[in-house]
């Protein structure tokens, strides 16, 4: 099916399910489906905290290949009885946020992302098997449709993350490159994010170095998703431990004024 | 009452309440009181996200008076179609974490704080009225006892924060200093943190520049609480919007390896 057709199909199906639920016989179910807000997700019993954040230092892989963080002691324990570092950090380092301002001259900066968009139902689209065969595979609109067919509508305000298995090889060269030294990792395809732009989705997330696949020539997802005012999360960890539906993600985005993004602490609860 | 007596009194009262609840007639209540974990708190309906984090830049007040963050463009939008900063950050800047490693040569670094300690019931001890009269007032053991008398036991794994009203004047000189230019702001007294060290409390938090009050000569709380393996949160915002009991705090501590702390995104849910 063409990408445009998939998007129309998903929208029609969601609309028709919602009209159906508006019938009196389905009033209870309607409330459940149509108003699944992040806060209602949290109202479910939660029993465990998951850490979706890589610990990072100057050896952590970066897109441009340069160290993303460097440390210098500003105060030393031996002389002062306490200690602290002066850090040099490139914003797009470690598990981190891409704010709209990263790819737009006047978009929302990282401190301006509404707090309500930082606590959200987490949708995981698993492409691990495909990624094992083709490093640069992308989540496309058909994958989103398949997720909806299997799991129901994307919850309101969700963060939609792809799970490719890449996080488990963060210390290997193949996290970033293929054997020839070219970028090679999974990402989102524009057909998927074009579909997600028609829905109330706060952010997309990846367990790789970039929202776009490694072989992207045009950064089509960065160049459309971020300028549309949505944000992204790159280099997520531990998605393997979570179900594809039912977790709540808590995105500890940094709050320095005018930031294009930055290292974040990302947790999830089930 | 002497501080030691207050601590003993609180412990005895908590123990006797728990023995009482172990009686068969109180089995249900016992389960509720004795096992109020952070996860169970989250199981309550949550309706709103609160942002306990100040947005910050190089003008944000710091303990040493020097800018805590500086920005430089590493990639500029006009030339590249995207942009990102190189940041210089002193770890103890903005709303931030004090890890045990900040005040101990070999304590837990910020990346090593267990994720389970980052999602917790939030206890707020309000000293706003007193702080208005005496800037360097401290939360003492008696304040903790008074909170327990009014609200019940401190929940297991809690973050205990003082609310002094200081966050609302973060842009004024009086956030940091008195008219003579001396440090002047509320903090925790060691009698309070000595009591909290006997309980399962993950962290303390303040809406001021330091865990210790501004006029502290010896940083007694930093020097005892942090080396004991507990962490702190400084410069919290918006505690005024929360009840003294019932909120859940989510502490987005940074995860750079070997850090003594760092800017954090702190949210709360009710």
Q: How would you describe this structure to a colleague?
A:
Two copies of one chain form a homodimer. The first copy, chain A, is of the alpha/beta class. Chain A has one domain: Glucose Oxidase, domain 1, CATH 3.50.30.50. Helices cover 24% and strands 23% of the residues of chain A. Chain A is built from eight helices and 13 strands. A nine-stranded mixed β-sheet of chain A has the order 1-13-11-5-7-9-10-4-12. Chain A has a two-stranded antiparallel ribbon with strand order 2-3. In chain A, helix 1 crosses helix 2 and helix 6 packs across helix 7. Chain A is globular and about 65 Å long. About 9% of the residues of chain A have low confidence. The interface between A and B is large, with 69 and 69 residues.
List its traits.
270 residues, KFase_sf (chains A, B), two-stranded antiparallel sheet, alpha/beta, arylformamidase activity (chains A, B), homodimer, nine-stranded mixed beta sheet, Glucose Oxidase, domain 1
List strands and helices in order, with pairings.
The structure is a homodimer of 270-residue chains.
Chain A: H1 3-22, H2 27-34, H3 38-42, E1 49-51, E2 69-75, H4 77-80, E3 84-90, E4 96-98, E5 119-126, H5 128-133, E6 138-139, H6 141-151, E7 158-163, E8 187-188, H7 190-197, E9 201-205, H8 222-225, E10 231-234, E11 247-252, E12 261-263, E13 265-269
Summarize the structure.
Chains A, B: One of its GO terms (molecular function) is arylformamidase activity. The structure is a homodimer. Chain A has helices spanning about 5-20, 25-35, 40, 75-80, 130-135, 140-150, 190-195, 220-225; strands at about 50, 70-75, 85-90, 95-100, 120-125, 140, 160-165, 185-190, 200-205, 230-235, 245-250, 260-265, 265-270.
């Amino acid at each position: 099916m063409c990408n445009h057709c998939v998007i129309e199909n998903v929208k029609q199906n969601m609309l028709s399910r919602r009209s159906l639920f508006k019938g009196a016989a389905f009033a209870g179910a309607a409330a459940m489906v149509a108003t699944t807000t992040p806060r209602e997700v949290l109202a479910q019993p939660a029993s465990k905290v998951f850490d979706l954040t890589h610990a990072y230092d100057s050896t952590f892989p970066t897109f441009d290949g340069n160290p993303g963080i460097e440390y210098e002691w500003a105060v030393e324990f031996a002389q002062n009885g306490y200690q602290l570092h002066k850090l040099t950090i490139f914003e797009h380092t470690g598990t981190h946020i891409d704010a709209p301002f990263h790819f737009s001259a006047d978009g929302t900066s990282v401190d301006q992302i509404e707090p309500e968009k930082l606590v959200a139902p987490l949708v995981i689209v698993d492409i691990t098997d495909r990624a094992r065969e083709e490093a640069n595979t992308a989540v496309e609109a058909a994958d989103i449709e398949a997720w909806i067919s299997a799991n129901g509508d994307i919850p309101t305000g969700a963060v939609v993350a792809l799970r490719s298995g890449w996080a488990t090889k963060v210390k290997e060269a193949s996290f970033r490159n293929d054997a020839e030294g070219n970028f090679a990792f999974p990402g989102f395809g524009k057909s998927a994010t074009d579909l997600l732009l028609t829905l109330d989705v706060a952010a997309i997330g990846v367990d790789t170095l970039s929202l776009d696949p490694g072989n992207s020539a045009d950064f089509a997802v960065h160049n459309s998703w971020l300028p549309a005012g949505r944000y992204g999360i790159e280099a997520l960890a531990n998605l393997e431990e979570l179900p594809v539906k039912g977790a709540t993600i808590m995105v500890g985005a940094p709050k320095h004024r005018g930031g294009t993004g930055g290292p974040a602490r990302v947790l999830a609860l089930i």
